[in-house]
Specification:
The protein is an alpha+beta fold. The chain is built from four helices and eight strands; from the N terminus they run E-H-E-E-H-E-E-E-H-E-E-H.
Length: 146
Amino acid sequence: MRVAVQPAPFDPGAEVSAFTAGVRGAGAVVSFTGLVRDEGGRLSAMEIEHYPGMTETAISGIAAEAVARWSLADVLVIHRHGRLIPGEAIMMVATAAPHRGDAFAAAEFLMDYLKSRAPFWKKEIGADGAEWVAAKVSDEDALKRW
């Protein structure tokens, strides 16, 4: 299991290839990469803040829960912080399991957690100024299914 919270960009393809090469006993690998989204062409950048140590501990705990719950062979979570521009990869998860259903379910579980509970604070910056991103009801609803 690897959890990385980093300011540096990453190559999703290279990360999935390395993750897959290191997996033993799995029949399925599922990955998801999230990009900085610019809805309506108004976003110049997004700034993501976190508390080092606290964020990694929280994400590692939920990743360990996913491993136990779905009998995963391995998990990878990468999440960036700092200043990002639209189109950049902001995060990714990869899960490996003996069967695809568990790999997909665990990846969705991790994504729902990262979206609603991981301790990150996001600020959108545009021509009209900067604004902190508020929690969305839809993200909270998605987490309830787990």
